[in-house]
Specification:
The protein has two helices and seven strands. The chain is of the alpha+beta class and 100 residues long. It has a four-stranded antiparallel β-sheet, with no helix packed on it. The longest helix has 12 residues. The structure holds zinc ion.
């Protein structure tokens, strides 16, 4: 009986998937005007799978994104490689810099 109650409890306390688990966020700073822009990346649709011999050692996912701020028309590009568990292995930015 105790096991049954435990099951019910764990069912009700199961964390709902919130935005922090579905998104990866980066902050980039525009090289031209200094604006800091928050970038939200959807784990399930924005990342592409890295194939063998692509990217740095151990890379599993890749993200390329164009970012446009609100204060000027300077385009910022980011290239990010992720390993298993979506930890960042390497990242590059053009037109700005990472601010996080
Ligand atoms: Zn700017």
């Amino acid at each position: 009986m105790a096991g049954f109650l435990e099951k019910i409890k764990s069912f009700f306390t199961m964390p709902a998937e919130d935005s922090s688990t579905r998104f990866i966020t980066f902050t980039v700073k525009c090289k031209r005007c200094g604006e800091e822009i928050k970038v939200k990346v959807r784990k399930d649709s924005d990342l592409s799978r890295v194939f063998e011999d692509e990217g740095p050692q151990g890379a599993e996912y890749f993200l390329r994104k164009e970012i446009l701020g609100e204060k000027c028309n300077n385009l910022i590009y980011i290239d990010v490689y992720f390993g298993p568990g979506l930890n960042v292995i390497s990242r590059e930015v053009k037109g700005g810099e990472f601010a996080d």
